[in-house]
Design a protein that fits this description.
The chain is α/β, with parallel strands linked by helices and 280 residues long. The protein has 2 domains: 12-105, Ribosomal protein L30/S12 (60s Ribosomal Protein L30, Chain: A, 2-Layer Sandwich), CATH 3.30.1330; 112-269, Alpha/beta knot (3-Layer(aba) Sandwich). The protein contains 12 helices and 11 strands. It has helices at residues 12-22, 24-30, 38-46, 58-61, 64-75, 85-91, 112-118, 134-146, 164-170, 186-192, 231-235, 252-269; strands at 32-36, 53-56, 80-82, 100-105, 124-128, 152-154, 179-181, 196-201, 206-207, 217-221, 237-240. The strands form 2 sheets. Strands 7-6-5-10-8-11-9 form a 7-stranded parallel β-sheet. A 4-stranded mixed β-sheet has the order 1-4-2-3, sandwiched between helices. α8 links the parallel β5 (124-128) and β6. α1 (12-22) packs across α2 (24-30) and α8 (134-146) packs parallel to α9. The longest helix is centred in the last third of the chain and has 18 residues, at 252-269. Residues 34-110 form the RNA 2-O ribose methyltransferase substrate binding domain.
């Protein structure tokens, strides 16, 4: 018997996926998000996430690796929904859809107390404060995981880490790097725990390569356009990335990557290895 793919958008499951794709409130309320693309779904599966459901189209079935993945998902008793390529394109948020997406539950939230209690080595903790572009946050997450950071802090005014666009930009790092939602008062909590708080500025700071990164450190990175409130520079250690006068500044995720990888290098010189890439 030939199975005909679903072609109607007037379906409860289809409407739910559209809401999860576009609405932060829907994602928070249902504690779920959308993962699109074979590679990203593989990353989620490898990190231990079990999809609530998977939607695929004929385009995905045409691929050898696509059929192999569907067989594996079927063996895991995953709910599979077959839709037309046309309907899948309605659901997709990428220019060239591969033909597969999944709804997954969000990971268990990690508190700042969890992080401070469970870190056996000096903390390397980048914090996004007011970063609004999901692509920037996802790229920062990818760099943080690769540099051996223990977690990523998400403070007020920052886009959610499990926004579907952020997930794609993270290239799967969001499934392995703990994300800590920071409540008001988090700077005092970090200082009480002996964590040095550093901020980045275009100028007037200590060159980042002259700072000591071997102790527990939080690196606060601010909004793409406005940076950080000037008050942050009075209360923290400020570091600067020296650059050619022909350039005004760096993208926030690029600046974060430069500093984090330098910190990782200095820490490894002192025998401090990478943090394990797993949820705490």
């Amino acid at each position: 018997m030939v199975i005909q793919p679903l072609d109607s958008a007037d379906n409860k499951m289809i409407r739910r996926i559209k809401r999860l794709n576009t609405s932060r409130q829907a994602r928070i309320k249902s504690n779920a998000t959308v993962v699109e693309g074979g590679r990203l779904l593989e990353e989620a599966l490898a990190a231990g996430f079990q999809p609530q459901l998977v939607v695929y189209s004929p385009k995905w079935v045409e691929r050898v690796e696509g059929r192999a993945m569907l067989t594996r998902l079927q063996a895991r008793s995953t709910s599979l929904f077959y839709v037309t390529d046309r309907l899948f394109e309605e659901l997709s948020q990428v220019e060239t859809p591969q033909g597969i997406l999944a709804v997954i539950s969000l990971p268990r939230s990690v508190t700042l107390g969890d992080l401070l209690d469970k870190s056996p080595q000096p903390l390397l903790f980048p914090i996004a404060l007011g970063i609004q572009d999901p692509g920037n946050l996802g790229t920062l997450m990818r760099a943080a995981l690769a540099a051996g950071a223990h977690a990523l802090g998400v403070a007020s005014g920052t886009v959610e880490a499990f926004n579907p666009k952020c997930l794609r930009a993270s290239a799967g790092a969001a499934f392995r790097l703990p994300v800590v939602s920071l409540d008001e008062g988090w700077p005092d909590v970090l200082r009480t725990a002996g964590v040095t708080i550093r901020t980045t500025a275009v100028d007037r700071g200590l060159p980042y390569h002259q700072a000591d990164w071997t102790g527990s450190t939080a690196l606060v990175l601010g909004n793409e356009g406005n940076g950080l409130d000037p008050a942050w520079y009075r209360d923290t250690e400020v570091v600067t990335i020296p650059m050619s006068p022909a350039s005004e500044s760096l993208n926030v995720s690029m600046a974060g990557a430069i500093v984090l990888f330098h910190a990782a290098f200095r820490r490894q010189e002192k025998g401090i290895g990478f943090a394990p890439p797993a949820m705490v």
